[in-house]
């Protein structure tokens, strides 16, 4: 009786995984591709693209599109048992390497953007001078190199037709799986996230320190008319601080919610790998693994929506300018 219950639960869990791939993956695909494409169009406008921090975010969104385009279609096909990565090793290798390396690069670029904001908010002129477009391009190239080197082993390690693992396209040895899981948990998720939190808090601290100095100047040096003008500027700056704090909080919270579970999952599967439990336990692991994958793809598709909700008037104005430009071109052609 217990055996039949376990068999029924196993079948149900396997069916849930299949339904997630069939119906949730396409929604995330549309959500991610549309959002990142709009983000690229908005951030590439002349008023924004000259900003070093914006360049990090622009390249990150472009990289996220690549990750989604390579990662989700095979999962959608897998929901209908048509995934080519399960049987063709070279497709398996390219897909795995591309998804892991691009996701790592996108996370590192957001981390670098956070460091860039800290440097720009510093009172040290030498730190602010580091934030040049030349150095930003160097940092982007560095993140690309790190991402490639971190997962280049997957061309050797990953193969199709792997049994007793969450996916047929998976690491072919325990050593390969251990290296991949630990690399993803620490290099792709935990370390960048910790650095983002630290430098984000330091940025806010720098902004408050600058405002304290400006406030001291207002109260001790300026006359009444100049004081009123400066107070208006201070009020505007406080609004910007609020947007900065909201944006940072939303980014960190969503990254924790969407990415940290997968890092924990990777560490757990390192200690208790697939194939070490009963059939029901393995089905539960596969379900958890697939949910973690989908959450990570949601994280790759969310930057545009975060910017709209928490990016303040600068981003919304850039969006409206983009809409106006597109509308003018469309109506111009119609006329």
From TrEMBL:
Indicate the segments forming the G-protein coupled receptors family 1 profile domain, all copies. 35-307
Q: Which GO terms describe its cellular component?
A: membrane
Domain of life, source organism: Eukaryota
Keywords annotated in UniProt = Membrane, Transmembrane, Transmembrane helix
**Pfam families in the record:** 7tm_1
Q: From the Swiss-Prot or TrEMBL record, state where the protein is found.
A: Membrane
Span-the-membrane segments of this chain are 23-43, 55-76, 96-119, 140-162, 182-204, 240-264, 284-306
GO MF terms held by the record: G protein-coupled receptor activity
Q: What is this protein called?
A: G-protein coupled receptors family 1 profile domain-containing protein
């Amino acid at each position: 009786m217990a055996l039949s219950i376990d068999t029924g639960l196993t079948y149900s869990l396997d069916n849930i995984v299949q339904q997630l791939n069939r119906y949730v993956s396409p929604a995330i695909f549309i959500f991610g591709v549309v959002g990142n494409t709009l983000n690229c169009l908005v951030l590439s406008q002349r008023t924004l693209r000259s900003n070093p921090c914006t360049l990090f975010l622009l390249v990150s969104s472009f990289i996220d599109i690549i990750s989604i385009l390579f990662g989700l279609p095979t999962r959608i096909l897998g929901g209908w048992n048509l995934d080519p990565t399960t049987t063709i090793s070279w497709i398996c290798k390219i897909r795995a390497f591309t998804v892991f390396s691009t996701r790592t690069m996108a996370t590192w670029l957001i981390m670098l953007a956070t460091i860039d904001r800290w440097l720009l908010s510093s009172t040290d002129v030498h730190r602010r001078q580091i934030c040049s477009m030349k150095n930003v391009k160097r940092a982007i190239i560095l993140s690309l190199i790190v991402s490639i080197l971190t997962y280049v082993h997957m061309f050797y390690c990953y193969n199709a037709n792997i049994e007793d693992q969450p996916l047929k396209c998976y690491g072919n040895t325990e050593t390969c799986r251990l290296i991949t899981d630990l690399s993803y948990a620490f290099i792709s998720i935990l370390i960048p996230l910790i650095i983002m939190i630290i430098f984000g808090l330091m940025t806010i601290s720098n902004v408050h320190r600058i405002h304290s100095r400006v406030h001291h100047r207002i109260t001790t040096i300026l006359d009444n008319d100049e004081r009123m003008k400066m107070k208006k500027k201070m009020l505007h700056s406080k609004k910007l601080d609020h947007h900065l704090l909201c944006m940072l909080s939303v980014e960190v919270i969503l990254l924790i919610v969407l990415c940290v579970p997968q890092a924990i999952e990777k560490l757990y599967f390192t200690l208790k790998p697939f194939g070490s439990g009963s059939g029901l336990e393995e089905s539960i692991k596969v379900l958890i693994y697939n949910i973690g994958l989908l959450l990570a793809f949601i994280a790759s598709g969310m930057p545009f929506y975060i910017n709209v909700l928490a990016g303040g008037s600068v981003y919304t104005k850039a969006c409206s300018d983009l809409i106006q430009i597109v509308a003018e071109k469309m109506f111009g052609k119609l006329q």
